[in-house]
Each structure stands twice: as structure tokens, then as C-alpha cells.
Amino acid sequence: MLELKDLNVHYGKLHVLHDLSIQVPEGQRVGIFGHNGAGKTTLLRACMGDLEHMQGNVQYRGNAIRTNEVHVNVSYGMAFVPQGHNVFRDLQVQQNLKIAGMRHEPDARKQAFDEVYALFPLLAERSEQIAGSLSGGQQQMLALGMALMTQPSILLLDEPTIGLAPVIVRDVLASVSEINRSRKTTIVIVEQNVQATLQNVDRAIVIKSGRIIYDGKSADLLSQESLWDLF
Ligand SMILES: Nc1ncnc2c1ncn2[C@@H]1O[C@H](COP(=O)(O)OP(=O)(O)OP(=O)(O)O)[C@@H](O)[C@H]1O
Questions:
Q1: What is the pLDDT, as a whole number, of residue 99?
Q2: Has the ipTM of the complex gone over 0.90?
Q3: Which domain holds residue 197?
Q4: CATH number at residue 84
Q5: Ligand 1 in contact with 14 (CB < 6 A)?
Q6: Residues of the chain with pLDDT under 70
């Protein structure tokens, strides 16, 4: 379980997140939506402890998440894929995956490789290709694969479909759902592609100016398009 209780985040004088309390059970897929600047990225960074300061309580699987200790928080089973294609462009696909799985012993790394290649056969086919020569969608698959090399129990994804063509958006979101289905990985995904994402998550949270204005089943939000005017 990921638990945020009375979370407040400021950047200097700017109060970005206001008294947020959210509980994400194991294995749930949660979509976080809202306008630019609503505080979605800040929320993900708070979950990882990737902030200078925050007030309130963030816990993952009973472990207190502390700021400035991302390396410790990762060891609790968390992985964060930030916005953009976070791959080493000059290295091969397999070298990218190897670096991401560096902390593993060889046997565990082999298992992680097998798992990633089973989920993304395209990465296996292109294991020797230079990452920078992959398409945008393929690079995003590689970024997901790299996150999976740490064998996380929760994946925090910041706009993984940004800049991708609609058909590729669907592929990336379907891959995220497949990761959840096959590995039971909890998913927290920030997205601007609201409709496509709602079809791939169980729960939707809408944030406006750092406050939760909707928290409910994604299907309910999907069927009430009038609610989309909220954000
Ligand atoms: N490191 C920072 N220092 C100062 N202000 C910041 C910092 N990061 C974000 N902000 C500000 O905090 C607010 C929330 O930003 P955040 O990136 O969390 O929003 P967001 O909902 O993810 O937006 P976007 O969709 O544009 O990524 C914005 O006003 C932003 O300008």
C-alpha cells in the first residue's frame, strides 16, 4: 500500500500541494489527471521522496518515505519513470537494460532480463540496436523496461505517452496494463491523454491547483464526459 497523509509541498513561497491524502492498494492502477501546473509531477516526486522538503506523511509498504533519500526509497520496491525518453541514447538496448539492473546479482539480473524481454519482445529483437535510433514509442518501451529491471512492486509514470502518435499512445498504455496484469505491479500514472488512460486504469484522481477534486472509478469518469470540464 502507498499512503499519503496530509501531504503539503511548497517550492519556496509557492504552495503546490494542499493536504493531500491518498491510499493506493497493492496492484491498483491509478491515473492522475489535471491541468498543466496542477501539481501532478510534484505528487509523483513526493511519493519517491525526490523533493527538498515536504510536510505530512508518505509511506510505502509501511516504510516512511523521506525527502532526499531516493536511493533508499527505491530499495522499498519503487520505480519512477520521469517525463521524456530516459534512455542512454548512445548505448545499445541491452546495455541500457544492463545498467538499469546493475544492483542485481547476475542470476537476478538474468531473470529481470527474461521478464523484460517476455513483456517487450521488440526489445529482445532489437537488443543490439542503439537506443537513440529507436522510434519515440520504442524508446518509451525501453524506459519502461529499464524501470522493470529493478523488479519494482510499484511503478510511478510521468506522462509516458507525451509526444507520441495516438496509435503508439495506445500501445504504451496497453504495455503498462500488461505489466500490471502479469506482474501485479501497482501503477500510478500521470497522463494528459485522459480518455485513452481512463481505459487502462481502475481509478482516477483529478487534481486542480494542488487539491483533489475527483477520486473515483475510472469507468465512472469515462461515462460522465461532463466531468471532464472539471479539469
Ligand atoms: N522545482 C521547482 N521549483 C519551483 N517551482 C516548481 C518546481 N517544480 C514545479 N514547480 C511549480 O509547481 C507547480 C506544479 O508543478 P508540477 O510540475 O507539479 O505540475 P504538473 O501538474 O505536473 O504540470 P505539467 O502537466 O505541466 O507537468 C507549477 O506552478 C510549477 O511551475
A1: 93
A2: yes
A3: 2-230
A4: 3.40.50.300
A5: yes
A6: 225-231
